[in-house]
Amino acid sequence: QVQLVESGGGVVQAGGSLRLSCVVSGLAFGNYAVGWARQDPGKERTLVAAHNSGTMTYYADSVKGRFTISRDDAKNTVYLQMNNLKPEDTAVYYCDADTSFGAVIGGYLARYWGQGTQVTVSS
Fold this sequence. Notes:
With 123 residues, the protein is mainly beta. It has one helix spanning 101-105; strands at residues 3-7, 10-13, 18-25, 33-39, 46-51, 57-59, 67-72, 77-82, 91-98, 112-113, 117-122.
């Protein structure tokens, strides 16, 4: 059974930082692209950042220079370091995984998803 379990969300003031973690089990993690997407109520889920099974990364324009995605294949874990947070970053953040990097970049096309973790940035 494939599981993706996110942690690290919370409430932070604008300008602050958070680090999200996602532990993945039940699949050959090293062979999968992984990513983070976010969703506001009533809006579609959109890509935040993606990392292929090698060293390639991809970011939404809105987070470039502020967010960093990384992965630790020994721990089956993907991270999202979020700095200089803004109120518009408030959303539920989801971890996702797929053998296709393109599917993860798509923001909602990945095969496997976590349950999400809430990030709230106060002004």
